Amino acid sequence: MSLKRFNELLIVDSTPTLDTNAYSANDVLGGLLTLAVCKPGGAGILRHVDVVDDDNQKIAGKLHIFNAQPTALLDDAEFLPVVADLKKRIGQIQVNAADYVTWNSNAQAFVRDQNIDFVTADGSLYVYYSTDGTPTHAATGLRFRFIFWIA
After folding, report:
1. What's the total number of domains in the chain?
2. Residue 56: which domain range?
3. Residue pair 143/54 in contact by the 8 Å Cβ criterion
4. Which tens digits make up the pLDDT trace of 11-22?
């Protein structure tokens, strides 16, 4: 038996490029986010996610986490994964409207203690963010910060 120790805190920031037209509920915002998190075959835990909404819309949404690259879904398309991608989907993080706080006309949400364990073949995690509402954002109106423990 071998014991893996989580010895590195990793913070990964990602800013998707958004369509500036209105989105529909369940649309993908910004397309696929690729997060380089560890060496190939590495493991870790996704602990927390912070969201900054520069447009202060505070729309709820879901972060869909995959441990291998899923089929491409375009920005402003419905989040509708194919069956093969469900085997790669390792978690979902709900960001609620009530998670946001307004600061200087911007909103920020902290979604803590998610604890999504992962092993990734290529060293990356892949994320789609789908909206629960109908936001209209500036091109860089959302920013995500992912906080990991890496083995």
Report:
1. 1
2. 8-150
3. yes
4. 999 999 999 999
